[in-house]
Amino acid sequence: MRRGRCPSFTALFLLGATACTYPRDADIEPLREPAEVASLYAVHRDTSGLFFSPWMENPNTLWSVLRWYLFTQNPYDKKGPAHVPRVQNDGTTLASVARPPEITWVGHSTFAVHDGDDVFLTDPHFGARALVPERKTPPGIPIESVPDDAFAVVSHNHYDHLDAWTVETLPGSVTWYVPLGLADWFRERGRENAVELDWWETARRGRWKITCLPSQHWSLRIEQGKNESLWCSWLLESGSTTYYFAGDTGYFHGFEEFGRRFDEIDVAMLPVGAYEPRWFMRWQHMDPAEAYQAFLDLRARFLLPMHWGTFDLTDEPVDLPPGELARVVAARGTDDRVQSMAIGERWRVPERP
Known about the structure:
Largest sheet: 7 strands, mixed
Oligomer: single chain
Strand content: 15-25%
């Protein structure tokens, strides 16, 4: 039997996720490695309206979840306190003009990007829980500091990325850019400014070009069935600075295609945590080595690691990923483009050479 931790939210959640299957159009078959670039542009919604990955299906089954949760010993000692760096930040600078741009890590997958007089948030989560798991570290800035004219991008509907309390507490004037199938969820909560996009679709907001891109993941909430809404990553271009936000994803061939297709990406915000055990998590979550390879594939100028230090979701300690990432980078040589941040830290984007 599995020992050393209390019942895992992730395991219980995945039990529900893998307990159902859905019909598939007979003409749509998942591709196997090596995946073709064309699969990134392929149909990814079946005839019943559910979304899927056209290059490789999620290999995990109900038995996989039971094997992890009931029969796999967690090799990590998680009894001690987590050491997650944090700096004080009252968020007041978000009301000013940021030139050059500044990025604040709020925690987990939430960044506040302050570019000129614009502010946008990634997967905003200021809440105390991700449904069940308690927040280990408080948000890096107060939610009240987010300006009324801010906008936000959401990658998918999992509870550690989409928090109802946060959505209902942020100003009603915030505009939300979301993948297909999520706009109604926002409107049901009185948030009418929800722009829904499919992969490769683009929205314009003043000087901003906001593009929805593929990722390798899945979706599920209590009020939404498995894969009823899409999952995605985002490319945001201000005209002078380009930001890539990966959301939640396994490593896949999309990163290389994004690096090839788009002009220089200045900042890549990539997940490095919630990756153990690898045999189970690899399809849906990158580990630090894969995240660093994704950064190289993207040909980005800087990497900001995320998806660690806030919620205890998988086997590894919440404070382990940045150290593992540092070891990966050191094994390949020094790389000062990797900017591991403290929660609440403001990092200024260097100008392009």
